[in-house]
Each structure stands twice: as structure tokens, then as C-alpha cells.
Amino acid sequence: MAAEKSPSERICAHMNAQHSSSIHDYALFFARLPSSLARTATLTSVSTEKLTLTITSAHGATSTVNIPLHPPMADLGESRERLVALAHEAMEGLGRSRYTVTRWVPPGPLGAVVSAAVCFGYWSFWNGAVQFARGGFVREYIFMGGLDAVAAVLAGYCKVFFCGILAIHVAECVWMQNTRLPKHSVFTGSALWWKWIAATFIEGIGSVKRFDGEVRRLQAEGKKAH
How far apart are CA 119 and CA 3, in angstroms? Predict the structure, then answer.
């Protein structure tokens, strides 16, 4: 019969399996480790006075780092609350919010219409010399064969309009990245990051507003929990 795990072992197993990102943050913020080492950190011991992390170098050598607890815990029954508080302190110390966005919110009906319109705009202006000329889809079915002066201007400056739309939406993606995504632990290159960036590139400000709405939802849930 296997020996029952100690409280420290149970806590470490849970943290390593379910909260590895928090351990990474502990290593970055409290232990001041470089990211390359912090990524390897595992929690190997919890006492009332300290956390012990084990890290692995690029050459496979292991070493331990201790993170003192101030004030010490009365017993390990306080560990959950203390570890959560440390995770929040580390996240905010690293410039991230405690409110972690973990899902992508799809657009509503209006957002879907805007996305379709933007995609149609990209397509129309990229092929503007054809689309705004006689026989082109836009000229014949959107402009109903009329609006000759408007069609002539759009055909003549189609690449300018295309580049303008592209520049605006790229700028919105940069804005989203610089002010929101990493702050709320949507890490660059992750599947979730690609969803939010792609939605922002297509839809623009509507995607940014949905992201802000998701953060407000998390904040409201946090207040209810307290």
C-alpha cells in the first residue's frame, strides 16, 4: 500500500499540475530568475516559512531556490490563501493584472456584420481595378451599375484605400497587444492570442471592446467571490 502523501507533497503536486504559470511567476518575481530558468521551476516543498523551487539549467543540472514567507504561516492550512496572494503579488509586480483572460469571446450579430463588411472591403479594394469597372461585381451589384464618379475615384485610388484599411487594423492589433493581451496573461503566439489578434485585425475596435467586457466580467466575479 502506497504511503499517504504529506500535506506539502499534496500541495506541490496540485500546484505543479494545475498552476505551473503561478510557479513561473514566483520564480521570476520573488526569486528574480531569468525567464529561461523560471520556465523550468517546479514547486518541491512548502513549509510554514518558505517555498522551495527546483530549477533545471540548460545543461540539465538542478538546484533549489527558497522563497521566504513573510510573515510565516501558522500551519499549512493557510497555504491556499497564501499561494493565491503570492500569485497576485507576482503578477502585478510583473506588470500583469490578476484578472486572467482564458477565453475568446466571438462577435455578436453587429460584430459579424462589421467583420463581413471589412473582409468585403479588403477584397474589393485589392481587386479595385476590376471590381469598380464595368462588369465588376461591386460596380454591377452593389452600385447597381451607377455611381460612375464614385466608382472612378475608388478604382483610381483602390490601393490607397486598401493600404489605409490595412494600416488602421494593424494599428488596432498593436494597440491590443501593447495595452491588453500580455497584461491579462494572453501570451504572444498562444492559440488564444491568435484568436484575439485575428478578430482585432478583421473587426477592429469591436474586438477590443469585447476583450474589455471580458475583463469587466472577471472583475465582477472577483468582487462577488470576496
Answer: 61
pTM of model > 0.85 = no
Per-domain boundaries in the chain? 7-93, 109-225
Instruction: Supply the Cα-derived Rg of the chain in whole angstroms.
Output: 26
The whole-angstrom separation of Cα 108 and Cα 114 is: 10
**7-93: CATH number:** 3.20.180.10
pLDDT tens track of the chain, all 226 residues?
Answer: 456 788 898 999 999 998 888 898 999 999 998 888 888 999 999 999 999 999 998 888 889 999 999 899 999 989 999 999 998 899 888 888 888 899 999 999 998 998 988 888 887 787 766 666 666 666 666 766 567 676 677 666 678 888 888 899 999 999 999 999 988 988 888 999 999 999 999 999 999 999 999 999 998 887 654 4
Q: Where are the beta strands (DSSP E) in the chain?
A: 42-46, 50-56, 62-68
